[in-house]
Amino acid sequence: MDILESVGAMKEGHFLLSSGLHSPVYWEKFRLLQYPVYAEKLCRLIVHHFKDQSVDVVAGPTTGGIILAFEIGRQLGVRSIFVEEEGEARVLRRDFEFKAGERVLIVDDVLTTGGSIKGTVDVVNKLGGVVIGIGVLVDRSTEEIDFNVPLFSCLHVPTVVYPAEACPLCAAGLPLVRPGGRLA
């Protein structure tokens, strides 16, 4: 938390998340990822947690997951790849592939609903990889999300989210900000 606060990663206001939900808190992971020394430290926590799991490949969803997969793969001494959005689904491009039975660690920056991670799990499973765990920098989920594999987060900070139609921030007239790169 100290690192995330020191770089100004936690923002307060009225935010439209990539899931379409609204929240009074937004975690701007790129405030952290612009500092490789901090990213390396937090990635090391994920590496330490999964170091005895015989990871073959680290995979992350675009966009923040690319940087994390690279750094965690570097620290583990394994290859790293990323999955991309295509419409509502996630896909593997750029000649990336999984060999049958390869053990895959999935990493992502911020977990809210688990949509990006679930999409990545689906791609790995469909192409013959075996997901052995999931690591995230910040888990902001308020309810347990069952991925059927171990989940590790560097920081778990349950943060309220609202459907747009029931958002008290909208009702209060607070301006809505869409800070992320993906459209909701």
Give your account of this protein's structure.
By secondary structure, the chain is α/β, with parallel strands linked by helices. The chain has a domain at 35-158: Rossmann fold (3-Layer(aba) Sandwich), CATH 3.40.50. Helices cover 29% and strands 29% of the residues. It has 6 helices and 8 strands, in the order H-E-E-H-H-E-H-E-E-E-H-E-E-H. It has helices at residues 2-6, 29-33, 36-50, 64-76, 115-126, 168-171; strands spanning 10-16, 22-27, 57-61, 79-86, 89-91, 103-111, 130-139, 151-156. The strands form 2 sheets. A 6-stranded mixed β-sheet has the order 5-4-3-6-7-8, with helices on both faces. A two-stranded antiparallel ribbon has the order 1-2. The protein is globular.
Short description:
With 184 residues, the chain is of the alpha/beta class. The chain has helices at residues 2-6, 29-33, 36-50, 64-76, 115-126, 168-171, and strands at residues 10-16, 22-27, 57-61, 79-86, 89-91, 103-111, 130-139, 151-156. It is globular, with a radius of gyration of 16 Å.
